[in-house]
Amino acid sequence: MTQKELGELRRRFRPDKNAISRIYGCYVNSNKEVISYLDESLGRLAQEEGEKYLSLLKKGLSGALGRNLIDIVFSTQQVADSDEHRLLRSLRDSHLKDADVRERFYQTVIQSLDMGESNYLILLAHDAYDVPRKGKDNEVQADASDEVFSYIVCCVCPVKDGKLELGYFSGDNEFHSNLAKQIVAPPELGFLFPAFDDRAANIYNALFYARKPEELHHEFIDAVFHTEAPMSAAEQKEAFQAALTGALERACSMEVVQTVHERLREQIEQHKESKDPEPLVLSPREMGEILRDSGVDEAHVNAFREQCEERFGGNVALNPENIIDARRFEIKTPDAAVSIVPEHSYLVETRIIDGRKYLLLPADEGVEVNGLPVEIVPDSGK
Fold first, then answer.
1. How many helices (H) and strands (E) does the chain have?
2. Dihedral, CA atoms, 337, 341, 347, 352, nearest 10 degrees?
3. From the CB of residue 19, how many other CB atoms can be counted at a distance below 10 Å?
4. What is the DSSP track for 215-237?
5. Which uninterrupted H or E stretch holds 311?
6. What is the pLDDT of residues 3-46, one digit of tens each?
7. Residue 368, class by beta-carbon neighbours within 10 Å (0-12 exposed, 13-18 middle, 19+ buried)?
8. Which of 268, 262, 269, 270 is nearest to 291 (CA)?
């Protein structure tokens, strides 16, 4: 899926845009016990309540592709004959109206999902999108359609206790402590099935959502999709760093890391400016070119490519947004840490003075210590 296709679906989660007839759900406590079930007509809910449900479902399709939103790929064998794919198709084909199918899905989630000590709500909705046709000029023809995209959206939302606050009780004409009822928080995870690829249904894929890119809930992915969980953003960053340091060894200098960070940051910025709907990815070969431009010799470049294949697998595509933090450049020693605006990272230099290693950073003006402006004065003793 592309960001543009994702946006097209997200715009449907408004009262006047969707074809969702009912909202289904299952409220579960931390002991994996079902507290209650939800089966509500969206059209009969109060407007505010209906909008709240739609907002939660919409948030299950939020974030960045390749980071919060991960492609789940089913094998041909799974699509042809597997319990997990059959269950997802049954949910979609029944428009979620089959209570037995819903219960099987709920139990699959409940028995696998680890939400710690939190209660949670499993939300389900089915929508049928009459996809507008696009003309030769790529303009949407609102009155023409060749495709109805039938899909389900699921999100799992933690349910938290409200805060104890003072509330006004008109009968007593007084203020008393008042505990708000339990509150449904934004979804922690969820998915869309099938994927919306080339503005049509792709039953070979699902789109999985994780609020925290570093916590993909592998146990949920394994139980519901029965596929190998993709690497989280944190795991990708760790694997990239290990491949880089393992391959370059002593050649992993400050200058090399500065250049790699700057080149990747530039590519991220250019990709955003281009508004390209496809996620930005780089192959190990392209990463090798960056290393070569940084002065790394061919032997170390080849070693890096081999390390990438070993750690990420064949046909790896690296997402720069997952392997660097484009918003900061941080240098740490055992005793100190310095954070620098990324575009000025080139100002930091390394020096060996009298046998000791130093980091040098220009400090001509505007120097502050704990918020206090300070002056750097010459040492009178030298």
1. 11, 18
2. 10
3. 14
4. ---HHHHHHHT-SPPPPPHHHHH
5. helix 298-312
6. 889 999 999 999 888 899 999 999 999 999 999 999 999 999 99
7. exposed
8. 262
Name the pTM for this structure: 0.79
For 51, the token pair is: 């909008």
Ordered by start, the domain boundaries in the chain are: 3-230, 234-323
Where would I find the beta strands (DSSP E) of 42-173?
69-73, 119-134, 140-160, 164-169
What confidence tens digit (pLDDT) does each residue in 292-327 have? 988 889 999 999 888 888 888 767 778 888 888 888
The Cα 45–Cα 68 span in angstroms is: 30
Cβ neighbours of residue 312 under 8 Å, at least 6 residues apart?
A: 231, 236, 239, 243, 318
Q: Counting beta carbons within 10 angstroms of the beta carbon of residue 131, is it exposed (0 to 12), middle (13 to 18) or buried (19 or more)?
A: middle
Secondary structure class of 98 (helix, strand, coil) = coil
Measured CA to CA, the distance from residue 196 to residue 186 in angstroms comes to 23
| Inter-residue contact 203 to 194 (CB < 8 Å) | yes
